[in-house]
Amino acid sequence: MLSVHNLSVDYGSTRVVDKLNLALADDEILMLVGPTGCGKTTILQALAGLIPISEGEITLGAWRASAKKPVPPEKRNVGMVFQDFALFPHLTVQQNVCFRLKDTALADHWIDLLGLSALRHAKPATLSGGQKQRVALARTLAHEPVFILLDEPLSNLDAALKDNLRWEIRHALKTAGVPALWVTHDQEEALSVGDRVGILNGGKLEQLDTPETCFCEPASRFVARFLGEASFIPGKLEQGRVVTAIGDAPGTPVDGATGEVDLLLRPDDVALTPAGAAGNGAVTWARYEGGTRLFAVNLDDGTQVKVRVSHEVRAEPGSRVQLKVITTHPLAVFNRE
Ligand SMILES: Nc1ncnc2c1ncn2[C@@H]1O[C@H](COP(=O)(O)OP(=O)(O)OP(=O)(O)O)[C@@H](O)[C@H]1O
């Protein structure tokens, strides 16, 4: 188990990671997300031992690192996977994976498992981005790290490739059975691939929980907005239900919210029907997404609500529509701002 207790990192007089606490089970994948500059890379560097920490402790198996007693990177046995692959261009796939490896049987295992057998003798320059990242992962796993750090491993790949490779990486990490901390900018990746998600804001963990809980029961408006489209609509919480201008839904109060509240609506919590001259709002803008369309609708009280519906529904900007809350699961309820 990896345990991080009160980890803080300062650059000069600026604290960029502030009392981070987390514990990862032996095969757990934790996705770390947050806006640019919130400290994600700094946390990875601190865990790898590449930068000094100011406070706190990191414990993993046989080693324990603190500000006073640092453990050098080479003694930590941490595997790292970067967005730029970091392969040796003059070596083949096989040689890259076997680099400084005593037991090459493990290299073969990961080359096979990651679908690279036919590319053993290829040089990195002849590989696609996805293949390169598989080689980098095979090399990391073949060295039997006790812990893996992934710094935006998919950010240099195109969307179609990303989708498959994220599942292949998850499968490989689970097969290896090592804890992994995976930094991403992609909210969808964070929610779909991780066992848990940590949302960072200004060097502090704002929430650390399962993807479902972070998405459906965000600890703050910041988390709600960061993990996807979020609209907040005024309502009244009465006996576990929130009554709003466009219908009512069961509510889960955040921070003891009560009485006059704001209800968090995700775009799929609401139905939209074109309404001629009637309706309860007007379309501000519409975005075609392929299978779906995302609409921003201004309700008659001025509140903006985003709604995602089938691509078959058409409504031009300026036209009247009828919105209705359709969800049956509880929605997060916040104190009125
Ligand atoms: N070597 C350094 N010296 C001083 N400040 C630094 C240094 N490296 C990073 N910082 C600052 O520390 C903060 C956290 O940076 P970090 O790179 O960890 O953020 P991040 O969340 O990884 O950002 P991004 O998503 O843009 O990669 C930022 O304000 C950054 O400017």
TrEMBL record:
PROSITE patterns with a match to the protein in the record: ABC_TRANSPORTER_1 (PS00211), ABC_TRANSPORTER_2 (PS50893)
Record's protein name: ABC transporter ATP-binding protein
Domain ABC transporter, chain residue ranges per copy: 2-227
InterPro entries: AAA+_ATPase, ABC_SmlMolc_Importer, ABC_transporter-like_ATP-bd, ABC_transporter-like_CS, ABC_transpr_FbpC, Mo/tungstate-bd_C_term_dom, P-loop_NTPase, Transp-assoc_OB_typ2
A single GO molecular function term of this UniProt record: ATP binding
SUPFAM superfamilies assigned: MOP-like (SSF50331), P-loop containing nucleoside triphosphate hydrolases (SSF52540)
Keywords of the record: ATP-binding, Cell membrane, Ion transport, Iron, Iron transport, Membrane, Nucleotide-binding, Transport
Keyword Ion transport assigned: yes
